[in-house]
Specification:
Elements (H helix, E strand, L loop, with lengths): L5 E7 L3 E8 L6 E9 L6 H12 L5 E8 L3 E2 L2 E3 L6 E3 H8 L6 E5 H8 L8 E5 L9 E6 L3 E9 L2 E6 L12 H14 L10 H11 L16 H9 L4 H25 L4 E4 L8 H4 L2 H8 L5 H5 L3 E4 L4 H18 L1
Parallel strand pairs: 1-4, 4-8, 10-13, 13-14
Antiparallel strand pairs: 1-2, 2-3, 5-6, 6-7, 9-14, 10-11, 11-12
Helix pairs in contact: 1-2, 3-11, 5-7, 6-7, 7-9
Length: 334
């Protein structure tokens, strides 16, 4: 079955991989098929791509492909951060039989950011209305398994996503309690990065810290409970120390979101993606988050005017990769 303007998009992480075929249209690519894989079940990207093509696209003419990958992309290749894989554009081109100009390899959070302009109103929820500048920049911060961020620069009336590695930058504490946590993390790991705080692993480390490195009675003496369990215990008011860990996470997320907004002058909005934020909406609507976001004297008035949204949509990186593939097709046609 040959389809015109069919594109392939992928989101390749250390744990899971999503691959999909989409059709192009003027606004938002429409999915034909999306398949989820366990990344570690495969030796390399070549094998996982071949499996997808064999099962779902054997007779399909794919016009362009974009993969969002969990790691920094340099010279059209990437060594993934949490799995010993190297992915490069030439490999993708060979497996998919697509010319290199129609192949794009980008960071996964960079891909997520490209999905922001095509999201529907039901795919986001607003924490602060603000007053969006339609010509301003925007920023995405995405705590999940790790932590990533991307700045969306407004250029020629469209957003250009700029990749970064926020999770591996130095953590800057603001309170005596956070300074104690910083010292704990440095003692354990040699340095403290934002991923030691704003990630699933970070929430577990905060949990250990607020429990004085002793097991929480709620988790049957488990030393490192899952982030979901910590969140549920905190939100359900079952453990004050779990709540303290979540408050530290929420406040740091607010503070660093505000920092990113100032660094990029994100007057079009701040977007919070990733798997954690949608589970914390009540916390993110609280003063714990918003006060930390705004507390940047003398810039409080600017930060109070910046819209803040939480992205509810799943598979954001996959959609963003499809958007980039669609742009590749448009570039060729133009």
């Amino acid at each position: 079955m040959a389809l015109t303007n069919t594109i392939l998009a992928g989101d390749i992480g250390g744990t899971k991989t999503l691959l999909g075929l989409f059709t192009c249209n003027n606004h938002r690519p429409e999915p034909l098929v999306i398949t989820r894989y366990s990344t570690q079940d495969y030796e390399d990207a070549r094998k996982i791509l071949r499996d997808f093509i064999c099962k779902h696209a054997h007779d399909t003419n794919i016009n362009a492909a974009t993969l969002g990958v969990a790691g920094p992309v340099r010279n059209t290749s990437c060594d993934l951060t949490n799995i010993p894989w190297r992915i490069d554009s030439t490999t993708i081109s060979d497996v998919l039989n697509i010319d290199l100009p129609n192949i794009q390899l980008i960071n996964d959070v960079e891909a997520m950011a490209y999905a922001i302009p095509v999201l529907g109103s039901d795919e986001v929820t607003t924490l602060q209305e603000g007053n969006a500048d339609p010509q301003g920049n925007a920023v995405l911060i995405a705590p999940g398994t790790g932590l990533g961020a991307s700045v969306l620069i407004k250029l020629n009336n469209r957003f250009i996503s700029i990749a970064g590695e926020l999770g591996h930058t130095d953590y800057a504490p603001r309170t005596p309690k956070e300074i104690l946590f910083l010292k704990t993390i440095i003692k354990q790991f040699g340095r403290a990065s934002y991923e030691h705080v704003l990630s699933g692993r970070g929430l577990s480390l905060l949990h250990i810290f607020t429990h004085d490195a002793k097991p929480c009675e709620l988790f049957n003496n488990t030393d490192a409970p899952r982030a979901d369990d910590i969140t549920a215990a905190a939100i359900g008011n079952k453990c004050s120390r779990c709540a303290s860990a979540l408050d530290m996470f929420t406040s740091t997320l607010g503070s660093e979101s505000g920092n990113l907004a100032l660094r990029s002058l994100a007057t079009a909005g701040v977007y919070i993606g990733g798997g954690i934020a949608p589970k914390l909406l009540d916390r993110l609507r609280s003063n714990t988050f918003l006060d930390a976001f705004r507390a940047k004297a003398p810039m409080e008035h600017i930060l109070s005017d910046i819209p803040i949204h939480v992205v509810l949509s799943e598979n954001l990186a996959l959609l963003g990769a499809a958007v980039v593939s669609s742009q590749l097709i448009s570039r060729v046609h133009n």
